[in-house]
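Hey, weird one. I pasted the Dihydrolipoyl dehydrogenase sequence into the form twice and got a warning about non-standard characters only the second time. First submission, copied straight from the form history:
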Amino acid sequence: MSQSFDVAVIGAGPGGYVAAIRCAQLGLNTVCIDEWKNPQGKASLGGTCLNVGCIPSKALLESSENYERAAHKFAAHGIKVEGLSMDVSTMMSRKDKIVAGFTGGVAMLLKKNKVTSIHGRGTLLKSVKYDVSNVLWQIEVKNGDKADTVEAKHVILATGSTPRQLPFAPVDNERILDNAGALALTETPKRLGVIGAGVIGLEMGSVWRRLGSEVTILEALPGFLMAADEQVAKEAKKIFTKETGLVIQTGIKISGIKTGETITVEYADAEGKAQQLEVDKLIVAVGRVPNTAGLGAENVGLRLDDRGYIAVDSYCRTSLPNIYAVGDVVRGPMLAHKASEEGVAVAETIAGQAGHVNLDTIPWVIYTSPEIAWVGKTEQELKTAGIAYKGGQFPFMANGRARALGETGGFVKVLAEANTDRILGVHMIGPYVSEMIAEAVVAMEFAASSEDIARIVHAHPSLSEVLHEAALGVAKRAVHI
């Protein structure tokens, strides 16, 4: 006989496991179904983010940045380092230990909150109507040759996304790598190619460049970081190429890839000239696609949009009653924190509360060095929309804390509506802006004006003073510039 639950969550990434925990907190009998296995073949909760995404990449970024500081920046502090070397295997072991700690922690959280955890692939089978008020969704859970069935009144789909594939560059994670392969290299490649100058490409390219690789990034789009504010993107490209040493080419068109002793990428540059790039390893980082394969959408008539995402409304309700979807598998940015908040909102909706996520105030972060973060509208978006605005900007070079850190590149920009002064967007590039962006998100959630931030007392010396001065700059009254 099938196990029956109030809520079944398919997927245990940041959207799924958080949704399951919140459902359980609200008194709902909940099961979380997930099929992820670690390299040792054991169940590993947390999805892409914890296993081969956010968490391991930040661990490697920190290790590579520490190495770079020791090699190039400690001397300015009077710290002498001799015989510096990098043990990649130790770096990877540290990363793996962090990942294991967090994935194990998710399992403990589910157990603590009395969420039933089942390992296997969850597939929607059908709805079963027992009586007028008792309609359940039937889900098959398959693990190898073993298949079980569970039933639930409500279903939350949180199956995440998978790397987009290029037909001419089949990933084997030995020489041609996706994000998982890029996080599992056992030694520093002499020459590394990256297809795609998005978040994954830049972060992974940065890691291996600092550790000694010659890194070339090829981007098909005509501009660099086109989702970011143009001024931020321009500053980032200058720093990444001149200081970090990345080679970044945009507007390219790849015609083919040949593999032999090395990997040769054949492409046309922005001017249409034929070029070749010879590398030892190649990372394919051209975005991600929603993971709906094997979900059983066709079994139950679940509607997908023309891009393969599960179609949902503003409350994450799908085309079917009592079935919801959150995270990378639905519209909006593919960000772990967005998925988590949608999971919470759906759980509260199911429990009869008022769950909501404001997609207009989701913060974006790229964990390069310097970091990049933003929330709200870019300057080019405001111009395209014909919205009258005013802006203020302040550089980290003029900030005391940034000078003490020795991290003075970048700036903060505040964009506000011309008439009301309501903040429309905040854009940052500089040290620890991944932490600083939260103040801007709070301000925008409360419909704050630039004047509000300008009149808040910020600690001195702190990096947050750069946001303060940028807000002052909207009214042309920044003090320290």
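That's the output from the first submission. The warning seems to come from a hidden character in my clipboard, not from the data itself. The chain has a mean pLDDT of 96.
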